[in-house]
Amino acid sequence: CLNPVQIKVEEGSLLCPSEHAAVAGGNVLTSQRVTDVVLKAFGAASASQGCMNNLTFGDSSFGYYETIGGGAGAGPGWHGQSGVHTHMTNTRITDPEVLEKRYPVLLREFSIRKGSGGKGKYRGGDGLVREIEFLKPLNVAILSERRVYAPYGLEGGEPGALGENWFVKKDGTSLNLGGKNEISVQPGDRIRILTPGGGGYGTTGH
User: Fold this and answer.
1) What's the CA gap between 151 and 46, in Å, rounded?
2) Count of C-beta atoms within a 10 Å radius of residue 112
3) Please, which residues have CB within 8 angstroms of residue 64's CB and are 6 or more apart in sequence?
4) Looking at the domain assignment, is residue 5 inside a domain?
5) Ordered strands of the 62-67 beta sheet
6) Dihedral pair phi/psi, residue 175, rounded to 5°
7) Which residues of 155-190 are buried (b: 16+ CB within 10 A; e: fewer)?
8) Which of 75, 96, 71 is nearest to 83 (CA)?
9) Which domain does 111 fall in, by range?
């Protein structure tokens, strides 16, 4: 199906970096945004969450890595799905019981982020809320997108909600981590991740 398509990418650009460029997240972040650009150019679908919300934590003895779903974009004739991965892979996430048995964490919340999908004749899918409490000192990192620019809607549909990453300390104080950050946590500290919703499609009532 790609026979009629010719792909031209400028050398030294984001999509064709030199061997000396510092790069990361090409498959889990950059590929998502390229897909959004192509779909928008053809008017085929509103933007999905635009990343895979990559979370890692560990210390010198172990490491853990997961990706977290979000909202899919709506399109001409369908609502976006909630709490899924899009355009890359629908990787499975560790079951809560297994996560808490194998790692020094407690899963405090894992739920649909209701209302985060963009409004429209066809609604964007909702993102997710995932909150993890740490039971020992660890290093934690988040690699994510759509924390500044919201997933766009099309044909009058509204954008999906921006994602948010929060470091909630044991004393109750909170720090917005932005899209990409690394922190050191202590027992009782938590990370709270709100993944983006998908964009809506079409004007409500039309």
Assistant:
1) 8
2) 15
3) 56, 57, 58, 103
4) no
5) 62-67, 54-59, 138-143, 180-185
6) -135, 125
7) bebbbbbbbbbebbeeeeeeeebebbbebebeeebb
8) 71
9) 26-194
Percent of residues in the chain assigned helix, strand, coil, to nearest 5: 10, 30, 60
Alpha-carbon distance 184 to 162, whole Å?
25
Question: Which token pair is 157?
Answer: 């549909």
Structural domain contains residue 137:
yes
Look at residue 73 and tell me if it is in a domain. yes
What are 102's two structure tokens?
A: 């194998």
Phi-psi region of 31 (alpha: psi -120 to 50; beta: other; left: phi over 0): alpha
106 occurs within a structural domain: yes
Q: Six-digit token pair at 92? A: 């499975």
**CA 140 – CA 102 distance, rounded (Å):** 17
Query: Which of 46, 94, 44 has its CA nearest to residue 71?
Result: 46
Query: What's 22's DSSP letter?
Result: -
Tens digit of each residue's pLDDT, the chain (206 residues): 678 888 899 999 988 999 999 888 878 888 888 899 999 999 999 999 999 999 999 999 999 999 999 999 999 999 999 999 988 776 789 999 999 999 999 999 999 999 999 999 999 999 999 999 999 999 999 999 999 999 999 999 999 999 999 999 999 999 999 999 999 999 999 999 999 999 999 998 75
Count of domains forming the chain:
1
Identify the three-state secondary structure at position 39: helix
